[in-house]
């Protein structure tokens, strides 16, 4: 024992390095063990769904998974196979996996849309946006069918803004993925709004979170360039961006319409078809009755116009703050004040990395159902639409209320309902 202690003392550098390496290796192995326990518990819970008896005449539920293997720097495929695929197969679903890294996706989507009970999107924000864009290329009947199919979201991408609305926060990636997959099996859904963003000549782009245009977004996309600064990289990116022309003003013209009244939800079960004699009677009565002329006056749209000069403009859905009982449909337009100090810019930029669509004090907040953003000629820069970059141009943004139904964790739905009651 004395010789061992003497050797450790004489070679203290190697001993210290070995101890650190051994400690790191033990921590890594313990983390892997905990991840395996999480996977096993999730599979056991999914097995309970698979063991439920169903009548012989009832077909298996069919699930179509749209997997983006390029998400999370190419790791999405492996994450899905390890954490989500076993849960889906054990639950008794008939699973079809479609990879979104090839051409002709719209045609393949058309073939599958008529033969699926639920859709699962496995990827990040860009995968959700890409799938909705492909559906928009199809016929109107297929689009209507797509809107009625419940959608599950498995967060595998680098940015998964939607997961914060649907699932509880978790710092463990395996737990986050397994919780999202189990939420699909539990069947609770919430309706989410969608923004349709259309340029003058471009195909429309769809966003579940929203659109950002301004200095905070421009600085945020450069954070990864300062990776060598570790936890200071976010502040560094915003600090160095202040070396440009200051203050950084973004000027535009905005036209918008106010909120619209929310119509009542359509019943999920369709009323039964009336008997044949009733339908014949109605048909004959409508045929013989004299046509009536209806003169319905259409109220002119009350557009409001605003000239703006801002450090950043954001147009966001209300999906982050779900309220299932509200009586109006609208999106939030946040016009931030152009007068901001460099210190406030750096501090607020770090906050916006966590909550991109936060609207700080002193900003002008507008509720609108539709808006038109006109940019001065020669405007450079980019929009951030659900964390995807697009060239800045004049656009029309239209709210599509309760367009899609997403599976969510029952705990999150319960929180939403409790908040509405309070």
Automatic annotation (TrEMBL):
Keywords: ATP-binding, Kinase, Lipid metabolism, Membrane, Mitochondrion, Mitochondrion inner membrane, Nucleotide-binding, Transferase. One of its GO terms (biological process) is glycerolipid metabolic process. Its cofactor is Mg(2+). It is found in: Mitochondrion inner membrane; Mitochondrion intermembrane space. It comes from the Eukaryota. Transmembrane segments: none annotated. It is an enzyme of class 2 (transferase). Its EC number is 2.7.1.107, 2.7.1.138, 2.7.1.94. Belongs to the AGK family. It is a peripheral membrane protein. Its main location: mitochondrion. Gene3D superfamilies: Probable inorganic polyphosphate/atp-NAD kinase, domain 1. Residues 58-201 form the DAGKc domain. The gene is Agk. GO terms for molecular function: acylglycerol kinase activity; ATP binding; ATP-dependent diacylglycerol kinase activity; ceramide kinase activity. InterPro entries: AGK_C (IPR045579), ATP-NAD_kinase_N (IPR017438), Diacylglycerol_kinase_cat_dom (IPR001206), Lipid_Phosphate_FormReg (IPR050187), NAD/diacylglycerol_kinase_sf (IPR016064). It catalyses: 1-(9Z-octadecenoyl)-sn-glycerol + ATP = 1-(9Z-octadecenoyl)-sn-glycero-3-phosphate + ADP + H(+); a monoacylglycerol + ATP = a monoacyl-sn-glycero-3-phosphate + ADP + H(+); 1-hexadecanoyl-sn-glycerol + ATP = 1-hexadecanoyl-sn-glycero-3-phosphate + ADP + H(+); 2-(5Z,8Z,11Z,14Z-eicosatetraenoyl)-glycerol + ATP = 2-(5Z,8Z,11Z,14Z-eicosatetraenoyl)-sn-glycero-3-phosphate + ADP + H(+). This is Acylglycerol kinase, mitochondrial. Pfam families: AGK_C (PF19712), DAGK_cat (PF00781). The keyword ATP-binding applies. Signal peptide: none annotated. GO terms for cellular component: mitochondrial inner membrane; mitochondrial intermembrane space. SUPFAM superfamilies: NAD kinase/diacylglycerol kinase-like (SSF111331). Pathway: Lipid metabolism; glycerolipid metabolism.
